[in-house]
Protein 1
Amino acid sequence: MSQTEEKKGIGRRVQAFGSFLSSMIMPNIGAFIAWGFIAAIFIDNGWLPNKDLATLAGPMIT
């Protein structure tokens, strides 16, 4: 196997691994954004502090 063929093989493996990682993260982007809004708005130091709703974000922060 020549060096250029070996580089192509490594590049394909890296690209496949990147695709695998993105396939795990992309479906969860909405959940991450929603959790961020809940945390920013309802935690104790948030814009609209609410103890009941802050319990949703609490376990993820600590």
Note: The mean pLDDT is 81.
Protein 2
Amino acid sequence: MTSDTDHSVHAPERTTARRPVTRGRLAFRIIIMAVILALLFGGLYAFNSFREKAIADFFAGNKPPPTPVSVAQATAQSVPKFTTAIGTLTASRQVTVAPEVVGRVTQIFFESGARVKAGAPLVQLNDAPDQADLLAYRAQAKLAENNLERARNLLRNQAGPQVTVDQNQAQLDEANANIKKTEALIAQKLIRAPFDGELGIRQVNVGEYVSAGGPIVTLTDLSNLFVDFTLPEQALSQIRIGQPVLVAADAAPGASFNAAISTIEPQVSPDTRAIKVRATLQNPERKLLPGMFANIRVVQPAAPDRIVVPETAVDYTVYGDSVFVVAAQKDGEGKEGYVVNRVPVKTGDRFDNKVEILEGVKPGDRVVSSGQLKLNNGAAVVPTEASALVPPQTVPRN
């Protein structure tokens, strides 16, 4: 018999065997990667270095030419010192001409804005009734004088009493008093200038009735003016009577007028802690007028041996003041040239288009006085005038 048992036939399985990685092969791969990275980074570094050198060589061969500038030398000199203030000009003599009595204007003897002398007639008020009264009083005086003479003759001859003489004397005295009173009233009605000065705008017309004290015209003496200003109490030790004062006004740009302190208020204001000061100013050309705003500089003793430079040499910025100092320097080819260095400075007073330098510059330093806007630190320059620069070894230093 044949057995029904099935014999399963199994195909043999294929086994894939992995080759183990040795340590030597791993090290080799790491070395290869390191070499590749080194070559990459080295090439990149070399490329960047080459590019930077090329750019530097390009700009080195295309440097801008030196900038023309004006140069001035810092010098040591005396610097004037001032105490500054703000003041107002006032008239030394100013009045509003007005009549002392009422009356009607019959004559006007002046024009608005005219210059008059003291005693010059300005306005005549109607004095016809007063002139008539004057004639009457003079006649009364004459009659009283004659009666007095007759009474005295009678008294000497014992033909008349003393009382008659006394009565006639009283009548004569009364008549003379009335004459003087009327003459004074007539004089009051002829209004005259009280002093030399400039007349303002006329405020009356012929035929107009004016009251006592009514304005006719202003009269101002412009030959002398007062300059009124205040100073802090700390400045009291710095001022004295007769001290020179320089006055400037917007009405006369660029001009300075000489004055002198004439009055110092003998007290300090308790509110402002300031001292009132008055200076007297000669104004022969009438360039200044009362009421004008004035810049005051009280002259103080000058400070000796202070360093000054032209005002245009200082560059004023929000970061501080500075100047460009010129220095000699050789270029790459050995040629002499000049460069500028920006130097911070501390400035002091300004005067006559100059600036006092407190810090940063020494006497003899050469500074750029114009053309700073085109400069930066280390820029090459050439002065517009060759004589503006001197060899560095001849520059005096302190």
Note: Residues 1-17, 386-398 have pLDDT under 50 and may be disordered.
Protein 3
Amino acid sequence: MRFSEKLSVFLLSYSPLDFWITGPLLNLFKKSHRLNVPGPSWLPVVGCYLEFSRLLSKFKYHYLVCENYARRYGPITGLRLGRDRIILVSGFKAVREVLTRDEFDGRPSGYFFRLRALGRRLGKCGPECTERHC
């Protein structure tokens, strides 16, 4: 059997279901999913939730956990809790920069954000809302 015949048999033996399962698994481990800001490393499905919950049980309050991250990683820290990517900003200069730059305008769009707002997007959420409401 030639190589091309072996390759065609190999490719035919894989069903689309195999690619459907292995594709997302490979994407979980890609480096491009990392945020471009310093922060703790995370696992594919849970993110850094395990470390965050460990620190929360140690410090008892969320703001103390955030202060700990700011001391370790700097005033702008990137986290991933589950599927959500979160940026923690602390300190007057960093908060002022984030609040005055257009790149940081908008609201997150996730299940819990929509649940809390009863299915609507509240506040300024992009150019389409600015055109519609202003």
Note: The longest helix spans residues 16-28.
